[in-house]
Amino acid sequence: MWGAWGCDKGALTPFLCFSNPSGLLPAPGAVRCPRRRGQVQRQQPPPASKARSLTRILPPSRPRPRRSFPCLGACAHIGGGAPAPRGRARSCRRHRFPSPLALLPFPPLRPLPRRQPARQPARPHCLPAGPWRSGWVSPPPPDSPGRSPQAVAGARWMWLAAAAPSLARRLLFLGPPPPPLLLLLLSRSSRRRRRLHSLGLAAMPEKRPFERLPADVSPINYSLCLKPDLLDFTFEGKLEASAQVRQATNQIVMNCADIDIITASYVPEGDEEIHATGFNYQNEDEKVTLSFPSTLQPGTGTLKIDFVGELNDKMKGFYRSKYTTPSGEVRYAAVTQFEATDARRAFPCWDEPAIKATFDISLVVPKDRVALSNMNVIDRKPYPDDENVVEVKFARTPVMSTYLVAFVVGEYDFVETRSKDGVCVRVYTPVGKAEQGKFALEVAAKTLPFYKDYFNVPYPLPKIDLIAIADFAAGAMENWGLVTYRETALLIDPKNSCSSSRQWVALVVGHELAHQWFGNLVTMEWWTHLWLNEGFASWIEYLCVDHCFPEYDIWTQFVSADYTRAQELDALDNSHPIEVSVGHPSEVDEIFDAISYSKGASVIRMLHDYIGDKDFKKGMNMYLTKFQQKNAATEDLWESLENASGKPIAAVMNTWTKQMGFPLIYVEAEQVEDDRLLRLSQKKFCASGPYVGEDCPQWMVPITISTSEDSSHAKMKILMDKPEMNIVLKDVKPDQWVKLNLGTVGFYRTQYSSAMLESLLPGIRDLSLPPVDRLGLQNDLFSLARAGIISTVEVLKVMEAFVNEPNYTVWSDLSCNLGILSTLLSHTDFYEEIQEFVKDVFSPIGERLGWDPKPGEGHLDALLRGLVLGKLGKAGHKATLEEARRRFKDHVEGKQILSADLRSPVYLTVLKHGDGTTLDIMLKLHKQADMQEEKNRIERVLGATLSPELIQKVLTFALSEEVRPQDTVSVIGGVAGGSKHGRKAAWKFIKDNWEELYNRYQGGFLISRLIKLSVEGFAVDKMAGEVKAFFESHPAPSAERTIQQCCENILLNAAWLKRDAESIHQYLLQRKASPPTA
Ligand SMILES: [Zn+2]
């Protein structure tokens, strides 16, 4: 999945991102995240009718219970669940289950009339009133003969409580329940507790000890039929799972969350059906235990379950996604996001990656909707009794994990091709936008054969669909054969998409398609090994894009996007090892972070370089062949690569994946006759300065060394496996430079002796050092300065040596670092001086590039122009500002539409130096934009506005209906990154609106992202205390590590400011007094 970072890529941009301050970068890795998951929730006020109905039932002081199951909006039932769309009532569970009521010892309730929607979509889009009427859902279990009336009543209560808890709870008011029922009902109130927690009224439950599912019963094949109701946001399901009972038992434990089971039974092969007599939901563990009156003997049989669930609005499980038809009508699609542990919200299942099975999926859907699943359609037939509904059957899947299952029901157009190895590839887009799927289609059709050749294993399914989903929390998700994407990660409008969007789409498509082998065919044994999936896909996406688009120079961009970003995070005391042992599924979210994705990708890149491509490919093929359709752990990959290469892979890699951090290699040199003697030593690199503790961790570091004789090939390669080493480089002349880490591949930082550094600097000016080495050198120096190992003034002097720099990525990294420095100095009274410095550094390249593309220019020139103009405009460069205003005016008046690549820099510049009218125009452009890319582009620059009232307006806008829930984070983050005042205002806004924000993103990675973007720029000690104190009283368990990292960064910023502010100021003043001559 493109998770936390995936969304980051999308969510975080340029100038909002401290490390990517231009705001113009494609920011490939910048935005990845743990992703993944859709805990985004848009809060809507309950319909008035519901509020009334609740007060009728509950005493006023009782908090409103919150249930997952939708229902009861218009009825007098207790309930909460999903709010009904505006103007429409939801169905009542009562209408659904008339027959069970008749069985109960209570008089049935009188059904309330259903409220008519104010603007009801045409009924043909809706499913028939309910399968319970046509007998689609099984009736409740029959009574066993000879049971006492109390036992029968108790069993019926249990059945009702399980099948329809809301209704059962309603009936509680009519008569006392048997004690076991009371316990059962109480056990189902975890959501309510969460709600209380969010209100600060209850303590968050502590992390519970976790147990994996028992192995006594396991699935062989799931036959699953689902019937979503796109108006009432519910679904009904029938599961018939053929299962193997390994050990005699009278209960089956499965995963199940937010689902109500109506009936369950087990049919042993060749024997009589046994009905389950109890469903015990363990809500905290997201499990259900089905109890049977007799023992299930070892052997095979069929487990039958009928159930109902909610099409929720939280972007996880089986959820609803809102879209607007070309005619402007709002409708909903039903889509899925199961990774990591949300398949259990769509159907009861063994929801662990190692419990694989095959799937026969059918969907019962309105006949005018597209229905998709992992496999191709094998049958489509009218549904009995309703001519508006069809049943679509899909072919059986290969053996696979539950988190990769997917289905989509909605309205889409598509474009189609066949890859050269015969796989049918389709890209599904919103209706009327098929054209925008062509770019991704081309990338996918090129990518599939590339991976097939690389892994030497064919793509195992007959088709692959890529589909753009309107409401989507992560960047994308690699469901086998049906990959889902955010719209901005898949759709490219030939006229209105910018170059960085193309590049992003190519990377995300490359990432998800790599998972079809690495992740889907061979799956991690448990979430502990998730990093391998994500790190590998995040590395090979670059290999694939480099193959498809060599002109992107994508490997250089990798260093700026993933490698340096991972190093920034991993240098903190609050980092974590790549391999983290994961227990309870709630811990999975935490590890979808830059360490899993970007550090994972960086160490795999280092490993690939250490082994060599030929042996790496051989090892990959061994691994994929040996474990296909099975599960594997990190050690299994190391073993295959070790066998292929004969190198000590496990020993080397364990030092990188099992301990956090990375080394700083200090190097000094001495000329001994014709040879150069190098003395190397390693120590852990810390963001706070040299490592001081005892027992400094050690790494086995593959090191490459190059010289000016041949700057693009290694003169020597060694494996540094001890704290200190001496190396002799033969035949190196005294005037030649020597550099470590050719290509910036090794995951370490380098500190050169002054003499060695001095000899390297001319290589920057005359470009004799390769671009990726210039970038690495500058980035190492910058982080050494941040850590207080060298002076920041030294780095500023090195930055000035980049005057002749032509490379986009080198500029982009330099721009990030200057952005970080600008943010820091915004706490001083000489912020304007650093802006002068920025203008001086960027002016020459800005003049060379100009505003309009020249003949023969390519992708990277377009990216560079956007970056440089944005940087100059933001810093207030007069000529750039004037031209940006002129072009913006023409754009708004329709005289001359801005090219997509120039929009971000122009929007940013005019907003930063504009007034309320400019902001209003931007908001109008936002409203008018048809493409999500354009909306996101505008959202990310809004925070550049400077006046306090306008900042407030932007913050209010962030939470409005105009902004999709997953994009709110980038608007608020943009404000925090835009100015000193914005930072304070954003923090206050988060505190004031904490409850709403927390509810939206409950526990998801977006809340971590929001916190990081909003508070990391502070540079005063006391702010670290304030942030810490706030989150102590407003806990956000899934963001705990992020909060610690932010507090650490605030303290580091404060220390940096105290240490270097004065010398930086003096240097800038001196420079002003005697400007450097070009
Ligand atoms: Zn992924």
Task: Give a written overview of the molecule.
- 41% of the residues lie in helices and 18% in strands.
- Helix 21 (808-825) runs antiparallel to helix 22, helix 24 packs across helix 25 (900-912) and helix 28 (948-958) packs across helix 30 (980-992).
- Among the domains are: 211-410, Sandwich (Immunoglobulin-like), CATH 2.60.40; 411-516, Neutral Protease, domain 2 (Orthogonal Bundle), CATH 1.10.390; 517-658, Neutral Protease, domain 2; 934-1077, Zincin-like fold, CATH 1.25.50.
- Strand 23 (663-672) and strand 24 form a beta hairpin.
- The model is unreliable at 4-206 (pLDDT under 50).
- The radius of gyration is 30 Å and the shape is globular.
- Strands 5-4-8-2-1-11-14-13 form an eight-stranded mixed beta sheet. It has a five-stranded mixed beta sheet with strand order 16-17-18-20-19, with helices on one face.
- By secondary structure, the protein is of the alpha+beta class.
- The longest helix has 34 residues, at 1040-1073.
- The protein binds zinc ion.
- Zinc ion (ZN) binds at residues 1-2, 478, 511, 515, 534, 537.
In one word, what is the shape?
globular
The overall average pLDDT, rounded, is: 82
Reported by name, the CATH topology of the domain at 211-410 is Immunoglobulin-like
Radius of gyration: 30 Å
Structural class: alpha+beta
CATH superfamily of the domain at 211-410: tricorn interacting facor f3 domain
